[in-house]
Every structure is written in C-alpha cells, then in structure tokens.
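REQUEST ID: PR-0412
SUBMITTED BY: lab tech R.K.
PRIORITY: routine
TASK: structure prediction, single protein chain
INPUT:
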Amino acid sequence: VLCYALGLSYPEKIRNIVALSGYINEKILIEGYADKNHKHIAIYSSHGQVDQVIPIEWAQKSMGLLKSQNINYTYEEFPIGHGVSADNFYSFKRWLKERF
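STATUS: complete
OUTPUT:
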C-alpha cells in the first residue's frame, strides 16, 4: 500500500515498484497525483487468490486505476493466501532482473 502511495504521489522520485499482496488506497495519495507523469514507472504487482487479509478484489480494482493512468504494470495472481509463494518470488525476481 505504501509503495503504491509513494510511487503514484511522487513519480519523479520512483522508477520501479514491487507491490506484493497490496492495493491502491486513493485516500492516501497526494492531491493531483493523477495529473503527474507516470510514464517512466514500471510496477510489478501480485496477490494471493485466497488472501485472508486483503481481499483480492481490492488488488484487481487497483489494476483498473493503473490502466486508466496508462501506467506500465504486470499483475499476477497465485493460489496462496497473504504471502509470497516460491513461484511468486521467482516471478518478481525475473521482473526485477529485466530492469537492472
């Protein structure tokens, strides 16, 4: 949640975001965030399909906001709860390697 908030609010300071088991809380984004240039930001987001802490629907809704802002993102779901499976770890590790 914090990674999304910082990246979307201050895109001039952030290049890549890894958001695991989170969502975008628009209440904590700075006013005018949507008017900022987010074109250089890349986001990797994943969520557990049976997350008992943060409903998967919240994560899915967040992807709609990213799409509406034309932000480059990758979103994946895994058959786990609120955590990071081995498959999830290797997936976001690959994503990071592609950027560095």
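NOTES: The mean pLDDT is 96.
REVIEWED BY: pending
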